[in-house]
Amino acid sequence: MQCSWKAVILLGLVSIAIQYTAIRTFTGKPFQICPVPNPLNCSPGPEAEAFGGLCDEFPYFFYNNSRKTHILILATTRSGSSFVGQLFNQHSDIFYLFEPLYHVQSTLIPHFTHSRNMADRRVMLGASRDLLRSLYDCDLFFLESYIKPQPANHTTDKLFRRGASKALCSPPVCDVLSPSEAYLAEGECIRKCASLNLTLAAESCREKRHVAIKTVRIPEISDLRALIEDPRLNLKVIQLVRDPRGILASRIETFRDTYRLWRIWRATGRKPYNLDLTQLSTVCEDILRSITTGFSRPSWLRGRYILVRYEDLARNPLQKTREIYEFLGLSMEKSVEEWIQNNTRSTNDISARHKYGTVRDSAANAESWRLKLSHEIVEHTQSVCQQVLEELGYRSVNSREELRNMSVSVVEDKTFVPFL
Ligand SMILES: *[C@@H]1O[C@H](CO)[C@@H](O)[C@H](O)[C@H]1NC(C)=O
Ligand SMILES: *[C@@H]1O[C@H](CO)[C@@H](O)[C@H](O)[C@H]1NC(C)=O
Ligand SMILES: *[C@@H]1O[C@H](CO)[C@@H](O)[C@H](O)[C@H]1NC(C)=O
Ligand SMILES: *[C@@H]1O[C@H](CO)[C@@H](O)[C@H](O)[C@H]1NC(C)=O
Ligand SMILES: *[C@@H]1O[C@H](CO)[C@@H](O)[C@H](O)[C@H]1NC(C)=O
Protein backbone atom coordinates (compact mmCIF):
# COMPACT_ATOMS: atom_id res chain seq x y z
CA MET A 1 0.00 0.00 0.00
CA GLN A 2 1.21 3.47 -0.75
CA CYS A 3 0.88 6.56 1.30
CA SER A 4 -0.38 9.82 0.10
CA TRP A 5 2.43 12.33 0.31
CA LYS A 6 -0.09 14.88 1.51
CA ALA A 7 -0.72 12.80 4.58
CA VAL A 8 2.97 12.54 5.21
CA ILE A 9 3.43 16.28 4.98
CA LEU A 10 0.45 16.84 7.22
CA LEU A 11 1.88 14.53 9.81
CA GLY A 12 5.22 16.23 9.45
CA LEU A 13 3.70 19.64 10.01
CA VAL A 14 1.70 18.54 12.97
CA SER A 15 4.67 17.01 14.64
CA ILE A 16 7.44 19.47 13.92
CA ALA A 17 7.31 20.78 17.43
CA ILE A 18 7.51 17.27 18.78
CA GLN A 19 10.29 16.40 16.37
CA TYR A 20 12.24 19.33 17.55
CA THR A 21 12.10 18.11 21.10
CA ALA A 22 12.77 14.64 19.83
CA ILE A 23 16.02 15.70 18.26
CA ARG A 24 17.19 17.30 21.43
CA THR A 25 16.27 14.22 23.40
CA PHE A 26 17.96 11.99 20.92
CA THR A 27 21.25 13.80 21.14
CA GLY A 28 23.97 11.23 21.11
CA LYS A 29 21.86 8.59 19.41
CA PRO A 30 22.23 8.12 15.70
CA PHE A 31 19.17 8.83 13.65
CA GLN A 32 18.15 8.50 10.08
CA ILE A 33 17.86 11.59 7.94
CA CYS A 34 15.41 11.90 5.03
CA PRO A 35 14.26 10.37 2.76
CA VAL A 36 12.07 8.79 5.33
CA PRO A 37 10.43 5.43 5.52
CA ASN A 38 7.10 7.01 5.84
CA PRO A 39 5.61 7.43 9.24
CA LEU A 40 2.41 5.65 8.36
CA ASN A 41 4.11 2.31 8.19
CA CYS A 42 3.40 1.67 4.54
CA SER A 43 5.96 1.48 1.82
CA PRO A 44 6.90 4.68 0.04
CA GLY A 45 5.48 4.76 -3.46
CA PRO A 46 6.84 6.48 -6.55
CA GLU A 47 6.27 9.77 -4.79
CA ALA A 48 9.10 8.93 -2.43
CA GLU A 49 11.26 11.19 -4.55
CA ALA A 50 9.35 14.10 -3.18
CA PHE A 51 10.80 13.51 0.24
CA GLY A 52 14.19 14.73 -0.92
CA GLY A 53 12.72 18.17 -1.43
CA LEU A 54 10.84 18.04 1.80
CA CYS A 55 14.00 17.52 3.73
CA ASP A 56 15.41 20.83 2.60
CA GLU A 57 12.28 22.64 3.60
CA PHE A 58 11.86 20.85 6.88
CA PRO A 59 15.27 20.26 8.30
CA TYR A 60 13.79 18.73 11.43
CA PHE A 61 12.21 15.90 9.52
CA PHE A 62 14.10 12.95 10.92
CA TYR A 63 12.99 9.40 11.26
CA ASN A 64 14.55 6.24 12.57
CA ASN A 65 14.55 3.60 9.92
CA SER A 66 13.89 0.68 12.20
CA ARG A 67 11.39 2.22 14.52
CA LYS A 68 9.52 -0.06 16.82
CA THR A 69 5.77 -0.22 16.58
CA HIS A 70 4.22 0.26 19.96
CA ILE A 71 0.79 -0.98 20.83
CA LEU A 72 -1.81 0.29 23.23
CA ILE A 73 -4.98 -1.62 23.99
CA LEU A 74 -7.54 0.96 25.03
CA ALA A 75 -10.42 -0.72 26.79
CA THR A 76 -12.97 -0.68 29.56
CA THR A 77 -13.04 -2.96 32.56
CA ARG A 78 -14.73 -6.26 31.67
CA SER A 79 -14.67 -5.73 27.93
CA GLY A 80 -12.37 -8.65 27.16
CA SER A 81 -9.11 -6.75 27.31
CA SER A 82 -7.21 -9.52 29.10
CA PHE A 83 -7.93 -11.72 26.14
CA VAL A 84 -6.74 -9.13 23.65
CA GLY A 85 -3.66 -8.54 25.78
CA GLN A 86 -2.81 -12.21 25.48
CA LEU A 87 -2.88 -11.95 21.70
CA PHE A 88 0.25 -9.83 22.04
CA ASN A 89 1.71 -11.35 25.17
CA GLN A 90 2.07 -14.63 23.30
CA HIS A 91 4.20 -13.07 20.57
CA SER A 92 7.92 -13.65 21.05
CA ASP A 93 8.94 -10.19 19.89
CA ILE A 94 6.51 -8.21 22.01
CA PHE A 95 7.09 -7.05 25.55
CA TYR A 96 3.67 -6.93 27.18
CA LEU A 97 2.55 -5.08 30.28
CA PHE A 98 -0.80 -5.61 31.93
CA GLU A 99 -2.33 -2.44 33.43
CA PRO A 100 0.81 -0.63 34.57
CA LEU A 101 -1.39 2.44 35.13
CA TYR A 102 -2.92 0.62 38.06
CA HIS A 103 0.03 1.89 40.08
CA VAL A 104 -0.55 5.49 39.03
CA GLN A 105 -4.17 5.24 40.00
CA SER A 106 -3.62 3.58 43.35
CA THR A 107 -1.03 6.20 44.27
CA LEU A 108 -2.78 9.32 43.03
CA ILE A 109 -6.43 8.46 43.60
CA PRO A 110 -6.56 5.57 46.06
CA HIS A 111 -10.32 5.73 46.55
CA PHE A 112 -11.11 5.43 42.90
CA THR A 113 -14.48 4.04 41.90
CA HIS A 114 -15.72 3.16 38.48
CA SER A 115 -17.25 6.56 38.07
CA ARG A 116 -14.67 9.24 37.59
CA ASN A 117 -14.78 12.91 38.25
CA MET A 118 -13.00 15.46 36.13
CA ALA A 119 -10.41 16.45 38.72
CA ASP A 120 -9.37 12.81 39.21
CA ARG A 121 -9.14 12.42 35.48
CA ARG A 122 -6.81 15.32 34.99
CA VAL A 123 -4.54 14.18 37.79
CA MET A 124 -4.40 10.67 36.36
CA LEU A 125 -3.95 11.63 32.75
CA GLY A 126 -0.83 13.72 32.95
CA ALA A 127 0.94 11.13 35.06
CA SER A 128 -0.35 8.26 32.93
CA ARG A 129 0.94 9.75 29.71
CA ASP A 130 4.37 10.33 31.21
CA LEU A 131 4.49 6.79 32.49
CA LEU A 132 3.36 5.29 29.19
CA ARG A 133 5.99 7.24 27.34
CA SER A 134 8.68 5.91 29.67
CA LEU A 135 7.44 2.36 29.51
CA TYR A 136 7.42 2.35 25.71
CA ASP A 137 11.02 3.41 26.05
CA CYS A 138 11.61 0.41 28.37
CA ASP A 139 12.33 2.73 31.27
CA LEU A 140 10.77 0.60 33.99
CA PHE A 141 12.47 2.51 36.80
CA PHE A 142 10.02 5.33 36.13
CA LEU A 143 7.32 3.06 37.49
CA GLU A 144 9.06 2.75 40.83
CA SER A 145 7.81 6.02 42.24
CA TYR A 146 4.26 4.64 41.97
CA ILE A 147 4.87 1.21 43.48
CA LYS A 148 4.15 0.83 47.19
CA PRO A 149 6.36 0.11 49.02
CA GLN A 150 8.90 1.81 46.85
CA PRO A 151 11.27 -0.78 45.36
CA ALA A 152 14.76 -0.98 46.86
CA ASN A 153 17.71 -1.84 44.66
CA HIS A 154 15.34 -1.85 41.67
CA THR A 155 13.55 -4.99 42.77
CA THR A 156 9.95 -5.45 43.82
CA ASP A 157 7.39 -8.15 44.44
CA LYS A 158 4.53 -5.69 44.19
CA LEU A 159 4.24 -5.18 40.47
CA PHE A 160 0.54 -5.46 39.67
CA ARG A 161 -0.24 -8.70 37.83
CA ARG A 162 3.36 -9.40 36.96
CA GLY A 163 2.26 -12.94 36.18
CA ALA A 164 0.18 -11.73 33.23
CA SER A 165 3.33 -10.77 31.38
CA LYS A 166 5.14 -13.60 29.68
CA ALA A 167 8.45 -11.76 29.51
CA LEU A 168 8.40 -11.17 33.26
CA CYS A 169 7.79 -14.86 33.96
CA SER A 170 10.37 -16.39 31.70
CA PRO A 171 14.16 -16.44 31.69
CA PRO A 172 16.22 -14.37 32.14
CA VAL A 173 13.83 -12.22 34.21
CA CYS A 174 12.61 -15.28 36.08
CA ASP A 175 15.56 -17.61 36.30
CA VAL A 176 14.04 -20.56 38.15
CA LEU A 177 13.59 -22.09 34.72
CA SER A 178 16.20 -23.02 32.21
CA PRO A 179 16.00 -20.98 29.00
CA SER A 180 14.57 -23.92 27.10
CA GLU A 181 11.55 -24.25 29.35
CA ALA A 182 8.30 -22.48 28.69
CA TYR A 183 7.11 -19.66 30.86
CA LEU A 184 5.02 -20.18 33.96
CA ALA A 185 1.31 -19.73 34.32
CA GLU A 186 0.26 -16.63 36.19
CA GLY A 187 -0.14 -18.02 39.72
CA GLU A 188 2.91 -20.21 39.44
CA CYS A 189 4.98 -17.28 38.28
CA ILE A 190 4.16 -15.31 41.42
CA ARG A 191 4.93 -18.31 43.62
CA LYS A 192 8.13 -19.46 42.00
CA CYS A 193 9.92 -16.47 40.54
CA ALA A 194 11.77 -14.40 43.10
CA SER A 195 11.25 -10.66 43.40
CA LEU A 196 11.15 -8.89 40.10
CA ASN A 197 14.49 -7.38 39.16
CA LEU A 198 13.46 -4.29 37.22
CA THR A 199 16.90 -3.91 35.69
CA LEU A 200 16.57 -7.34 34.13
CA ALA A 201 12.99 -6.62 33.12
CA ALA A 202 14.09 -3.46 31.33
CA GLU A 203 16.80 -5.39 29.52
CA SER A 204 14.27 -7.96 28.43
CA CYS A 205 12.06 -5.14 27.18
CA ARG A 206 14.87 -3.67 25.12
CA GLU A 207 15.53 -6.99 23.48
CA LYS A 208 12.02 -7.12 22.04
CA ARG A 209 11.06 -5.12 19.01
CA HIS A 210 7.69 -3.98 20.31
CA VAL A 211 6.03 -3.00 23.53
CA ALA A 212 2.31 -3.61 24.07
CA ILE A 213 0.42 -2.13 26.99
CA LYS A 214 -3.16 -2.80 27.96
CA THR A 215 -5.09 -0.26 29.95
CA VAL A 216 -8.60 0.35 31.14
CA ARG A 217 -7.49 3.53 32.87
CA ILE A 218 -7.44 5.98 29.97
CA PRO A 219 -10.98 7.26 29.42
CA GLU A 220 -10.94 7.98 25.71
CA ILE A 221 -8.83 8.14 22.59
CA SER A 222 -8.38 11.92 22.58
CA ASP A 223 -6.56 11.61 25.88
CA LEU A 224 -3.83 9.81 23.96
CA ARG A 225 -3.44 12.35 21.22
CA ALA A 226 -0.09 13.70 22.44
CA LEU A 227 1.34 10.18 22.46
CA ILE A 228 -0.16 9.23 19.12
CA GLU A 229 1.32 12.32 17.51
CA ASP A 230 4.76 11.62 18.92
CA PRO A 231 6.71 10.11 16.01
CA ARG A 232 9.24 8.54 18.35
CA LEU A 233 6.60 6.29 19.81
CA ASN A 234 5.04 5.11 16.56
CA LEU A 235 2.02 4.21 18.63
CA LYS A 236 -0.95 2.24 17.34
CA VAL A 237 -4.10 2.01 19.37
CA ILE A 238 -6.50 -0.89 19.42
CA GLN A 239 -9.73 0.31 20.89
CA LEU A 240 -11.66 -2.63 22.25
CA VAL A 241 -15.38 -2.13 22.75
CA ARG A 242 -18.10 -4.42 24.00
CA ASP A 243 -21.85 -4.27 24.31
CA PRO A 244 -22.41 -2.16 27.44
CA ARG A 245 -25.04 -4.64 28.61
CA GLY A 246 -22.36 -7.33 28.54
CA ILE A 247 -19.90 -5.09 30.37
CA LEU A 248 -22.47 -4.35 33.04
CA ALA A 249 -23.43 -8.00 33.56
CA SER A 250 -19.80 -8.98 33.85
CA ARG A 251 -19.03 -6.22 36.33
CA ILE A 252 -21.99 -7.13 38.47
CA GLU A 253 -20.62 -10.68 38.71
CA THR A 254 -17.03 -9.64 39.28
CA PHE A 255 -17.04 -6.54 41.45
CA ARG A 256 -19.45 -7.74 44.06
CA ASP A 257 -18.99 -4.84 46.47
CA THR A 258 -18.91 -1.97 44.03
CA TYR A 259 -21.92 -3.29 42.14
CA ARG A 260 -23.84 -4.54 45.17
CA LEU A 261 -26.83 -2.29 44.56
CA TRP A 262 -27.14 -3.47 40.99
CA ARG A 263 -27.38 -7.03 42.30
CA ILE A 264 -30.09 -5.96 44.69
CA TRP A 265 -31.97 -4.37 41.80
CA ARG A 266 -31.59 -7.54 39.77
CA ALA A 267 -32.74 -9.78 42.60
CA THR A 268 -35.65 -7.71 43.91
CA GLY A 269 -36.81 -5.97 40.76
CA ARG A 270 -36.72 -2.67 42.66
CA LYS A 271 -34.14 -0.06 41.80
CA PRO A 272 -32.35 1.07 44.98
CA TYR A 273 -32.81 4.84 45.39
CA ASN A 274 -29.10 5.33 46.06
CA LEU A 275 -27.84 3.34 43.08
CA ASP A 276 -24.84 5.04 41.49
CA LEU A 277 -25.95 5.39 37.89
CA THR A 278 -22.70 7.03 36.86
CA GLN A 279 -21.08 3.58 37.03
CA LEU A 280 -22.87 2.88 33.80
CA SER A 281 -23.21 6.29 32.19
CA THR A 282 -19.47 6.96 32.44
CA VAL A 283 -18.72 3.80 30.50
CA CYS A 284 -21.02 4.79 27.69
CA GLU A 285 -19.98 8.43 27.62
CA ASP A 286 -16.33 7.45 27.32
CA ILE A 287 -16.97 4.90 24.60
CA LEU A 288 -19.17 7.34 22.72
CA ARG A 289 -16.59 10.11 22.84
CA SER A 290 -13.88 7.75 21.65
CA ILE A 291 -15.76 6.22 18.76
CA THR A 292 -17.12 9.59 17.70
CA THR A 293 -13.55 10.80 17.44
CA GLY A 294 -12.54 7.60 15.66
CA PHE A 295 -15.39 7.77 13.16
CA SER A 296 -14.63 11.41 12.37
CA ARG A 297 -11.20 10.33 11.15
CA PRO A 298 -8.98 13.18 12.27
CA SER A 299 -5.62 13.19 10.53
CA TRP A 300 -3.75 12.42 13.75
CA LEU A 301 -5.46 9.03 13.89
CA ARG A 302 -4.65 7.99 10.36
CA GLY A 303 -3.06 4.56 10.37
CA ARG A 304 -3.00 4.56 14.14
CA TYR A 305 -6.43 3.43 15.25
CA ILE A 306 -8.47 0.31 14.91
CA LEU A 307 -11.85 -0.35 16.50
CA VAL A 308 -12.53 -3.93 17.56
CA ARG A 309 -15.76 -5.30 18.95
CA TYR A 310 -15.26 -7.97 21.56
CA GLU A 311 -18.16 -9.96 20.13
CA ASP A 312 -16.44 -10.21 16.73
CA LEU A 313 -13.32 -11.54 18.39
CA ALA A 314 -15.36 -14.07 20.32
CA ARG A 315 -17.11 -15.21 17.14
CA ASN A 316 -14.04 -15.48 15.02
CA PRO A 317 -10.92 -15.07 17.10
CA LEU A 318 -8.38 -16.27 14.60
CA GLN A 319 -9.56 -14.18 11.70
CA LYS A 320 -10.04 -11.08 13.81
CA THR A 321 -6.60 -11.44 15.31
CA ARG A 322 -5.10 -11.72 11.84
CA GLU A 323 -6.83 -8.47 10.89
CA ILE A 324 -5.43 -6.73 13.95
CA TYR A 325 -1.91 -7.95 13.26
CA GLU A 326 -2.22 -6.87 9.66
CA PHE A 327 -3.27 -3.41 10.75
CA LEU A 328 -0.25 -3.22 13.04
CA GLY A 329 2.02 -4.35 10.24
CA LEU A 330 3.34 -7.22 12.33
CA SER A 331 3.49 -10.85 11.40
CA MET A 332 1.40 -13.16 13.47
CA GLU A 333 3.33 -16.02 14.98
CA LYS A 334 2.42 -19.66 15.25
CA SER A 335 2.48 -19.32 19.05
CA VAL A 336 -0.30 -16.73 18.91
CA GLU A 337 -2.42 -18.97 16.72
CA GLU A 338 -1.80 -21.90 18.98
CA TRP A 339 -2.72 -19.91 22.05
CA ILE A 340 -5.99 -18.88 20.43
CA GLN A 341 -6.77 -22.46 19.57
CA ASN A 342 -5.95 -23.60 23.07
CA ASN A 343 -8.05 -20.95 24.72
CA THR A 344 -11.15 -20.51 22.65
CA ARG A 345 -12.40 -23.94 21.85
CA SER A 346 -14.47 -24.19 24.97
CA THR A 347 -14.45 -22.56 28.36
CA ASN A 348 -10.97 -23.36 29.52
CA ASP A 349 -11.08 -24.58 33.11
CA ILE A 350 -7.69 -23.21 34.07
CA SER A 351 -8.28 -19.67 32.91
CA ALA A 352 -11.88 -19.76 34.07
CA ARG A 353 -10.78 -19.98 37.67
CA HIS A 354 -9.04 -16.66 37.69
CA LYS A 355 -11.02 -13.49 38.18
CA TYR A 356 -9.27 -11.80 35.29
CA GLY A 357 -8.53 -15.00 33.40
CA THR A 358 -8.57 -14.67 29.70
CA VAL A 359 -11.24 -16.48 27.81
CA ARG A 360 -14.19 -17.20 29.95
CA ASP A 361 -16.47 -16.06 27.18
CA SER A 362 -16.55 -18.02 24.00
CA ALA A 363 -18.74 -16.92 21.12
CA ALA A 364 -21.69 -18.68 22.71
CA ASN A 365 -21.56 -16.76 25.94
CA ALA A 366 -20.45 -13.36 24.65
CA GLU A 367 -24.19 -12.72 24.83
CA SER A 368 -24.74 -14.53 28.09
CA TRP A 369 -25.63 -11.22 29.75
CA ARG A 370 -29.05 -11.77 28.23
CA LEU A 371 -29.64 -14.51 30.76
CA LYS A 372 -28.00 -12.68 33.63
CA LEU A 373 -29.58 -9.24 33.59
CA SER A 374 -33.18 -8.45 34.41
CA HIS A 375 -35.29 -6.87 31.72
CA GLU A 376 -35.53 -3.64 33.77
CA ILE A 377 -31.77 -3.33 33.99
CA VAL A 378 -31.46 -4.02 30.27
CA GLU A 379 -34.04 -1.34 29.49
CA HIS A 380 -32.29 1.13 31.71
CA THR A 381 -28.94 0.38 30.05
CA GLN A 382 -30.46 0.75 26.62
CA SER A 383 -31.80 4.18 27.44
CA VAL A 384 -28.53 5.40 28.98
CA CYS A 385 -26.34 3.90 26.25
CA GLN A 386 -28.70 4.21 23.28
CA GLN A 387 -26.29 6.01 21.01
CA VAL A 388 -23.37 3.68 21.74
CA LEU A 389 -25.56 0.69 20.97
CA GLU A 390 -26.65 2.19 17.68
CA GLU A 391 -23.20 3.25 16.56
CA LEU A 392 -21.63 -0.07 17.37
CA GLY A 393 -24.39 -2.24 15.93
CA TYR A 394 -25.86 -3.70 19.09
CA ARG A 395 -29.60 -4.14 18.74
CA SER A 396 -31.92 -3.08 21.55
CA VAL A 397 -34.45 -5.60 22.79
CA ASN A 398 -37.98 -4.53 23.52
CA SER A 399 -39.45 -7.40 25.47
CA ARG A 400 -38.49 -10.05 27.93
CA GLU A 401 -39.06 -12.70 25.24
CA GLU A 402 -36.73 -10.99 22.83
CA LEU A 403 -34.15 -10.59 25.56
CA ARG A 404 -34.10 -14.27 26.43
CA ASN A 405 -34.45 -15.68 22.93
CA MET A 406 -30.83 -16.59 22.36
CA SER A 407 -31.46 -17.96 18.90
CA VAL A 408 -31.54 -14.39 17.62
CA SER A 409 -28.28 -12.49 18.15
CA VAL A 410 -28.47 -8.82 19.06
CA VAL A 411 -25.04 -8.21 17.56
CA GLU A 412 -25.47 -6.93 14.02
CA ASP A 413 -22.90 -7.71 11.38
CA LYS A 414 -20.90 -4.57 11.05
CA THR A 415 -17.50 -3.86 9.57
CA PHE A 416 -15.32 -1.12 10.92
CA VAL A 417 -12.77 -0.33 8.27
CA PRO A 418 -9.49 0.82 9.79
CA PHE A 419 -8.57 4.37 8.87
CA LEU A 420 -5.41 3.92 6.81
C1 LIG B 1 16.33 2.98 15.71
O1 LIG B 1 15.57 2.58 16.82
C2 LIG B 1 15.92 1.31 17.30
C3 LIG B 1 14.93 0.95 18.38
O2 LIG B 1 14.67 2.02 19.21
C4 LIG B 1 17.35 1.36 17.82
O3 LIG B 1 17.72 0.12 18.36
C5 LIG B 1 18.26 1.71 16.68
O4 LIG B 1 19.57 1.84 17.14
C6 LIG B 1 17.82 3.00 16.00
N1 LIG B 1 18.56 3.14 14.76
C7 LIG B 1 19.08 4.30 14.40
C8 LIG B 1 19.77 4.31 13.09
O5 LIG B 1 18.96 5.30 15.09
C1 LIG C 1 20.31 -3.03 48.53
O1 LIG C 1 21.62 -3.37 48.17
C2 LIG C 1 22.60 -3.04 49.16
C3 LIG C 1 23.98 -3.35 48.58
O2 LIG C 1 23.99 -4.56 47.91
C4 LIG C 1 22.31 -3.82 50.44
O3 LIG C 1 23.23 -3.48 51.44
C5 LIG C 1 20.90 -3.47 50.91
O4 LIG C 1 20.58 -4.27 52.03
C6 LIG C 1 19.89 -3.73 49.81
N1 LIG C 1 18.59 -3.26 50.25
C7 LIG C 1 17.52 -4.03 50.29
C8 LIG C 1 16.28 -3.42 50.84
O5 LIG C 1 17.54 -5.18 49.86
C1 LIG D 1 19.37 -7.20 38.96
O1 LIG D 1 19.97 -7.57 37.76
C2 LIG D 1 21.11 -6.79 37.42
C3 LIG D 1 21.53 -7.15 36.02
O2 LIG D 1 21.75 -8.50 35.88
C4 LIG D 1 22.19 -7.06 38.46
O3 LIG D 1 23.35 -6.30 38.15
C5 LIG D 1 21.66 -6.67 39.83
O4 LIG D 1 22.60 -6.99 40.83
C6 LIG D 1 20.36 -7.37 40.13
N1 LIG D 1 19.79 -6.79 41.33
C7 LIG D 1 19.58 -7.51 42.42
C8 LIG D 1 19.05 -6.78 43.60
O5 LIG D 1 19.79 -8.72 42.45
C1 LIG E 1 -1.43 -25.40 23.68
O1 LIG E 1 -1.78 -26.62 24.31
C2 LIG E 1 -0.81 -27.64 24.16
C3 LIG E 1 -1.39 -28.91 24.75
O2 LIG E 1 -1.86 -28.66 26.04
C4 LIG E 1 0.49 -27.22 24.81
O3 LIG E 1 1.47 -28.19 24.64
C5 LIG E 1 0.97 -25.92 24.16
O4 LIG E 1 2.14 -25.46 24.81
C6 LIG E 1 -0.11 -24.87 24.24
N1 LIG E 1 0.34 -23.72 23.50
C7 LIG E 1 0.14 -22.47 23.90
C8 LIG E 1 0.74 -21.40 23.06
O5 LIG E 1 -0.50 -22.17 24.89
C1 LIG F 1 -37.02 -16.85 18.84
O1 LIG F 1 -37.08 -16.01 17.71
C2 LIG F 1 -37.28 -16.70 16.51
C3 LIG F 1 -37.14 -15.66 15.37
O2 LIG F 1 -37.92 -14.54 15.61
C4 LIG F 1 -38.64 -17.37 16.53
O3 LIG F 1 -38.85 -18.06 15.31
C5 LIG F 1 -38.67 -18.33 17.70
O4 LIG F 1 -39.94 -18.89 17.80
C6 LIG F 1 -38.34 -17.62 18.99
N1 LIG F 1 -38.17 -18.59 20.04
C7 LIG F 1 -38.75 -18.44 21.22
C8 LIG F 1 -38.50 -19.52 22.21
O5 LIG F 1 -39.46 -17.50 21.48
Automatic annotation (TrEMBL):
GO CC, any one term: Golgi membrane
Annotated GO biological process: carbohydrate metabolic process; keratan sulfate proteoglycan metabolic process; N-acetylglucosamine metabolic process; sulfur compound metabolic process
Record keyword Transmembrane present: yes
UniProt GO MF annotations: keratan sulfotransferase activity; N-acetylglucosamine 6-O-sulfotransferase activity
A Pfam family the protein falls into: Sulfotransfer_1
Bilayer topology annotation: Single-pass type II membrane protein
EC number: 2.8.2.-
InterPro entries: Carbohydrate_sulfotransferase, Gal/GlcNAc/GalNAc_ST, P-loop_NTPase, Sulfotransferase_dom
Ranges where the Sulfotransferase domain occurs: 69-392
Subcellular location as annotated: Golgi apparatus membrane
Secretion signal span: 1-23
UniProt keyword list: Carbohydrate metabolism, Glycoprotein, Golgi apparatus, Membrane, Signal, Signal-anchor, Transferase, Transmembrane, Transmembrane helix
Stated family: Belongs to the sulfotransferase 1 family. Gal/GlcNAc/GalNAc subfamily.
Name the UniProt record assigns to this protein: Sulfotransferase
Organism: Pygocentrus nattereri
Gene expressing this chain: CHST1
